[in-house]
Every structure is written in C-alpha cells, then in structure tokens.
Design brief:
This protein is of the alpha/beta class. About 50% of the residues lie in helices and about 10% in strands. It is globular.
Amino acid sequence: MLIRAVLLSCLIISACAPVTDETTEIGPVAEYAEAARPDVETLKANYAMSLQAARSTSGAGAPPVWMVSDEDTDIYLFGTVHVLRPGTVWRSPAFDAAFARADRLVLEIDATSEAAQDAFITDFVQRGTYQDGRTLRQVLSRSDAAIIETAVVRYGLSLDMLDQFKPWLVMVNLSSLAVQDEGFEQAVGLEAYLYEQALAQGKSIGALEAISDQAEAFDRISEAEQIELLYETALMLDEMPEMLDDLVAEWRDGDVAGIAAMISSPSAVGLGPEAYDSLLVQRNRSWVTGIEAMLDEAGVVFVAVGAGHLAGPDSLAAMLRARGHVVEGP
C-alpha cells in the first residue's frame, strides 16, 4: 500500500466506539459517545501476547518466495516491507533467482510516476479530506481529542492544522511519522529497491491497483473504527518503532505463521475487523483476479506486495489455492 499496512501492523485494535447523535456547541463535538478506551498498558499487554505467539513459530531463515504456474507462465509472489532501517539484510538466493528470471515486476501500486504523484493528491488526499462540512474535531470525543492532540504536537502539528482530514488519513500519516522519526526509511524499503532494479534490468513494471483503489479501502472503514485506529496510534507512538522491528524480524526469518499471528488473521491484534476486511481481504480478492489474468499471458512475473497479504487464512496464496491453483511455497 502507499501508506503501508506494515505500519498499521503496529496498532493494537479493540472494539469500535458506538455511534451516537449527541453533539456539543463548542470545542470537540461528541458525535461518538465517550468510549471505554484501553489504556497504554493494556495495549502493551495485548501486543506482548501477540508477539509471544509469533515467536513460538519460526521460518526458514529468509523471506519466502511463492510460485503459481501454468504451461507457459510462472508468477512469483514475494512479501515486502515498505519501510526499513538502512542496512537491513534480507536478500536470499531464492529471491535473487526468482527476480533474475522475471521479465515483469508488478507492485501494489504505481507510486513513482508523475501521474502517480498527481493521483496521490487528487485521489488519496482528497478522499481523506472531509467534503461534507464536518471536521475532525467534530467527530472526536473530548477525551479522544486530548490524546490525539498530545500526539500530533510532538511533530509540530495541531488538531486545528489537521481538522479538514478524516481520522484514517491522520492515522496513517501519524504512524508514518512515528517510524520515520526512529530511522525507518521508505527509500530503503523493498518497493524502492525492486523498482530501481527492474528499471536497471529492463523489466516492464505494472501495478495491481490504482491509488484511488487504495484510498477507497481506507475510506470504507467505518468512522467509528477509524477513530479507534487513530486513538490507539496516538497512544502507542513510542512503541511503534519496536513493534515494526519485531515484524521485520519475523519477515526476515520467513515466519509466515508469525506474521499471521501479529497482523494477518481475524484474531490477530494488528487491525480492527473492518480494517482487516477492507485493507487485506477485499484487496486480496481483487488481486487474485488480476494474478489469474496474468496466467493468460506467457512470461515470468514477479509480484511484490506487503508481507501481510501473504500470511494468514485470507492470504493471496490461500485464496489462489482455494480457486484450484497449485501454489508452491509455505
């Protein structure tokens, strides 16, 4: 994803706040009732249990490569981490061999072309901006607003500066700032590396979805769950870099079950139920259709998507197998 699911994996999600019609005349408008939110210690404890489950399994020692084929097409599937610390070692002989064979690279989205940069403003940011006269303050309870205000101030921001944006857009930017501030960089993430290598090797480059599709995936999450995500992001900012380090460790080990325990199953703590369905399940279903279409053309394709899309019961590999395809890999 453009604003990455791997960053959302740093969140620990609980039940959504109930919707109410109550409003106030001044200050934050309590469109949602004051919810019994978990405190930071509860969130840490929940995450610790998830991490313990992840560490109870192990992988083969390197990020895995899957393959689905027919008589004239080989499609490799590879899970990525969108932001990494400089110097992170992750390549393996299996990756090198698969990427070298491919004549085409397919990423989640086109995030590099001039048209893509324009689409980010016109589609992604616009979709995350209120168009109906409401504001962020109007949909936050007073207690949620106080927590979120405290979080954004540390980056030189304020709720007033963010008032035009929906909770999901504030959440993804806040989580991005948290990990970037601690040394993670998109420039050394897998997508940037793969794109540069594909260009250098003369491979064609495609995408599974448009930026507008990604924006829609965030926007269809209910506002109540968006607020829950934003609240818990704000509360867990200090823990996010370590959480992402934990997830990268599972990915580097090739521990698909560990990734599933952390973020890629309905019972994991990585995403709320609506976010899990919208950001992972529905997009995977759409991508499976696109991958099947690739089988109709001869060649070797290397498909790289966020690692969360290749773990758990609703992974791309699981969906392809359920549709009758033989998928090599874990």
